[in-house]
Amino acid sequence: MNQISHIGYARAGWFGHRKLAPRACVADSKKHLRTFLADALEDLGFVTSECGQASELDAVLDAERPDLLVLGVSVDGIEVSKILETLVRKEFGGKVLVIGQPDSIIVKAVRQIGDEYGIAMLPALATPFSAGTLRDCLASLLPLEPAPSPAVDVAEALKAGWLELWYQQKIHLRTLVPSGAEALVRMRHPAWGVVPPAYFIPDAGDPHFEALSEFVIGRTIEDWHYLLEQKGPVDLSINLPVSFLADISVVRDLCRRMPEHPAFSGLLIELDSAEVIDNLDLVIDVARRVRLYNIAISVDNVGANWPSLMGLENFPFVELKVDHQFVTGCADHRLKQTVCRRIVELAHDNGARVVAQGVETRADFLAAHDMDFDLVQGYLFGKPMGVKKFARSRLQLAAEKEPSR
After folding, report:
1. Which CATH superfamily is domain 2-141 in?
2. How distant, in Å, are the alpha carbons of 177, 362, 365, 372, 392 from that of 375?
């Protein structure tokens, strides 16, 4: 135990033989530039911190021990000198990346001073840059090992606070206005960075699945209040297993936890279509119980199994979401279009809306438009993102849609 601890301390950034998630500090005097760079780095798996002026750097270096310091060109020359002096005094062992045109006077000056101080300077990154260019520039700092399967026990992740929710927009197809968002669970593992759910979501029968579902509900409510303060009310949906709703006491507790704020318009629970079809009586009963508490049921991943939802005496679902495998590439695939059209008809005949998942190209979007979908969701309109970045993206979208004066 002592030997392992010693190795981890002596080799900063490592734990045993595994590279820890790289850490980066963004130093720039302008908040919006720090935010942009931090978002780009987090997409590459970095854990980020920010520094708005040289006087803040001491504390950041002590607390975060970053592998990388990113200097934006908006930092003036005096601040740059102080920052570099701080790096030398603190014996900073990481690398420094300057953002700006390599032939500009300030970039040349920073690199020259850095070299004189013996600081490891990466080649300057010219602006504007793409995600691919940034990744290539920082390739030496990114972990080489793939995420493990499974990455970590869910109980450990819950206890350590590694889980968080990311949000992906749903877009109204006709108006292109945001129309709610889906919450997707992610793990920010200390050794592997952001890990997708395929590596850690337990089976439905796992005893930890209930605790994970409780986490999703609680964090979604917290995030709804945060988004309310930052932008305004946002309609959110969450994914739950049908087995979680089989306990009537759990359903009652879920209803009691709904916000009483007048701006809260409801929570949408997305249930996998295969589970819904296998447990129709249970799901219909739950849908009737929760609708009086501003909770509605959406049927997720509807595909070739759509006929099983036909002929219901009472159709309690407010939304059907078409499986992405029938949406992605549907513009040039007649069979996919046929399935999509049937599901759209089923939804509309029962007064429900229908969502096209997996819209990644303009051609798929136009096809979804022609097939009369109500909402679209997919990478064409944005990837899932953390709640703070999601709040900023909504603000930006709102600003872009605000009419000029």
Report:
1. Response regulator (3.40.50.2300)
2. 10, 15, 10, 9, 22
DSSP assignment letter at 123: P
State the Cα angle at 300 between 297 and 304, rounded to 5°.
130
Identify the residue with better confidence: 143 or 278. Answer: 278
Average pLDDT, integer, range 290-319:
94
**CA dihedral for 60, 64, 65, 66, sign (positive or negative):** negative
d(CA 18, CA 12): 11
Q: Which residues contact 316 (CB under 8 A, 6 or more apart)?
A: 283, 284, 287, 288, 291, 297
Domain segments of the chain: what residues? Answer: 2-141, 154-401
- Residues near 218 by beta carbon (within 8 Å), at least 6 away in sequence: 257
pLDDT surpassing 90 at residue 285:
yes
| Burial class (CB within 10 angstroms; exposed 0-12, middle 13-18, buried 19+) of 305 | middle
Instruction: Answer yes or no: same fold for 2-141 and 154-401.
Output: no
Token pair recorded at residue 255: 């209803």
Q: Which amino acid is at 375?
A: L
C-alpha distance across the termini of the chain, in Å: 66
How far CA 341 is from CA of 48, 271, 305, 348, 379, in Å, comes to 45, 21, 14, 11, 22
Q: How far is CA 396 from CA 19, 302, 385, 389, 400, in A?
A: 36, 32, 14, 10, 6
Q: Which band of pLDDT confidence, cut at 50, 70 and 90, is reported for residue 103?
A: confident
Number of H helices, E strands in the chain: 15, 17
Q: Which CATH class is domain 154-401?
A: alpha beta
Name the DSSP class of 57. Answer: H
Rounded alpha-carbon distances, angstroms, from residue 256 to 32, 221, 235: 39, 12, 18
Task: Give me the chain's average pLDDT, please.
Answer: 84
State pTM to two decimals. Answer: 0.70
- Residues 176-233 have pLDDT tens digits of 999 999 999 998 877 777 777 777 777 766 777 888 999 999 999 999 999 999 888 9
- The pLDDT-based confidence of 133 (bands split at 50, 70, 90) is confident
> How far apart, in whole angstroms, are the C-alpha atoms of residue 15 and residue 46?
16
Cα separation values, 250 from 159, 214, 266, 402, Å = 21, 9, 18, 42
